[in-house]
Each structure stands twice: as C-alpha cells, then as structure tokens.
Amino acid sequence: xxxxxxxxxxxxxxxxxxxxxxxxxxxxxxxxxxAKLYAKQLRTFPPEHDDQKAxxxxxxxxVGTTNFSLRKPNFVIxxxxxxxxxxxxxxxxxxxxTSVSSHYVIGRDGDIYHMLNDYYRGWHAGAxxxxxxxxxxxxxxxxxxxxxxxxxxxxxxxxxxxELLEVLKERHGIPTANFIGHSDxxxxxxxxxNVTFPxxxxxxxxxxxxxxxxxxxxxxxxxxxVPSEAIRKIEVAENEIFExxxxxxxxxxxxxPKLALRVIGYDVSxxxxxxxxxxxxxxxxxxxxxxxxxxxxxxxxxxxxYL
Length: 307
What we know:
Low-confidence stretches: none
Distance between the termini: 85 Å
Oligomer: single chain
CATH architecture of the largest domain: 3-Layer(aba) Sandwich
Largest sheet: 5 strands, mixed
Shape: globular
Strand order of the largest sheet: 3-2-4-1-5
Strand content: 5-15%
Radius of gyration: 26 Å
Helix content: 25-40%
Structural class: alpha/beta
Mean pLDDT: 87
Number of domains: 2
Number of helices: 10
Number of strands: 8
C-alpha cells in the first residue's frame, strides 16, 4: 500500500515552506488586513451619528463633495536605527507591541525596504516640534538608516537615500527646508542621525539647507564663547549703496540667536537642547551648549535662508 501524506500535514508543510521563503508573510497579512479596515472606514461615509453627535444640527441630507484627495506628506524625517542589523530593525517594526514604524528602511548595502504607504501615518517621529507643527507623524515620511548610532554611514546607503529623496521630493512637492533629522524635531530626546551624517551632501542635492562658504561677518557682542544662559546677540551691519557706488551710514540690526533658532524651526523651550541639536546638524563637532563666534556666523547665515 502506498504511503500517503495526511492532508493536514501537507497543508502544514506548504505553509512552513511559504514562511521560510518570506519571514514577513504573517506580518504582511496583518498589514493588508489593517489597510482593508482603514479602506472600509473611509468608504463608510457619512458615518452613523451617535446620541452625542445627534445634538449637533446636521442637515437632512448628506452631500458628498467631489473635490478631495488623500492627505500628503510635507516633511521627510531621517533617523538612524540604533540597532545591530537591518533584520533587527525589520523585526522591531513588525512587532505590534513595539508601536514603532517607518515608511522606509535602508540597509548598509543600499537595499531599500518599503514598509508603509507614503500616505499612511507612520509611528517614527514621536513627541516633537518643528516650527508650529507639533504632530510630525501626521505630516511626514520617516526614513530609517541601518546604523548603530556611532558608525559612519555606508556609501551605498547614502546613494540609495539620495535616489529615494529625489523621488519623494518630486512625488509630494516637499520643500527643500523640510528635510530634517529626528534630533531636529525632538532635541531633548533624540540624537539621530548621528554626527557623521552627510547633511551638506544632501543640501547640495536640494534636500535641506546648508550654510554658505562665503564669509559671513556679524559682529558678536560679548566673549568668544559663552554658555547659552548668557547667550550673546549678533549685530549685523548692512550698508546702503548709492548709485555712484558710495556707501551710506551703516544700518545695525541685532539678531537674537534664540530667535534665529526658532525661525529655522527648532523648539527653543529648552534652549540648551536646541543649541545642541543645531550643532549636531550643522556644526558636527563639539556638540555642547556653547556657541562660538564661528557657530554664530553659521547660525546667522542659515537664519537668512529660512526667513
């Protein structure tokens, strides 16, 4: 008599083989299920009104507008994973109990893992502020770079990032100024991407701002280095030029570094944290709460760009 594999055992083996070929097949199914739930909620309109909502004066008829679209992201926030491998990060982002996610993860070898539709709200930014925006998760795309938090970023990784940013900027019309780091929006909590991140290189491609190489010469009032609690002001002399080429009397403007940081976008409620976040992004050395003359010149130059 021929040995036959029981039907249940056969199904089990098929499922086992499927899972072995794709370790994320189960979480992919969960993702699709959640997406279908959201799609169902979007289709259920007008919603049923409960007793509390019934107290509002709704009209008798629902009138569905023809003019609408999905919300679109307006920021890109860059992170390092602070984990040991891309596999570690992918596992973290597919465990419901972690409550963290990102739209894209980029491995050291340049491989890009697309984890969430750009129009969905990821859970990558957390509590943070940029300008007047206090809910960056709702308006941003999160990109995680596989990096332990201390090492330099691999060239293949940065090349893939630049290609991805070009697509995202064109697809969503994201302004140049709105490519920022996690530490920029959450200076009291985060320090990513780390100090080796090539922000200048990104800015040269149109993803974020960088200060000019030209000499900027504000007059700094006070000592050459002071702590932030005794922060100096920057006095800028601007000359009016007459048609004959001669200069008029100087017009002096006083710029408060705290205001300059606020104009760029930093939350200055904790000024020391804002200064450190600024230096992590733009100075990339001596990440402390001190502002040297050179730091202030850079700050003033950037302040003008963000106005």
